[in-house]
């Protein structure tokens, strides 16, 4: 009887131990799986939250920097303003008229009376001085300084050098007018050089017309 009772108690103890171990393992398993699941769930939620925040925030856009190309044509410097500190006296040499096409350099005398025209090219005293804004008028005899002026035409250059600088003009227009045509000396909106001589060049005696070159200032130095 004692042996059977002892065996029963031993068997009951084993079953109790096994049950306890089972409960412990089950509990540990539940704890482990729940902990890992919670961690994974937390990590997933954090990832999705960060992703949503990133999509909601405006993205920084760095503009593309394009290579700056140099201008096709350099900007032209402003024309130099002619400055004369005093008005020249009648009969005074104020500079030179250079006509590249004729390879000629002619003195410019202030005034257009016969006395001045005998010395060179006369500057009409009532017009502005060369290089200034407006119409500067020069005149000369066809049988002296302007003997070959008829060879100069549209597109040719006329250069005037004075104390105020060097001024290059380009012939824009050639006109033949009556001797009493006053449009030759009218004011101009920009720096203009008007050169006049008697015409026709081969006319014998007092010529009834005038050969006119109208030139625009293209360079001032």
Automatic annotation (TrEMBL):
Residues that span the membrane, as ranges: none
Q: So which residues are the signal peptide here?
A: none
Q: Which UniProt keywords apply?
A: Hydrolase
In which domain of life is the source organism classified? Bacteria
Q: Supply the Gene3D superfamilies for this chain.
A: Sortase
Record-given protein name: Class D sortase
Annotated source species: Planococcus shixiaomingii
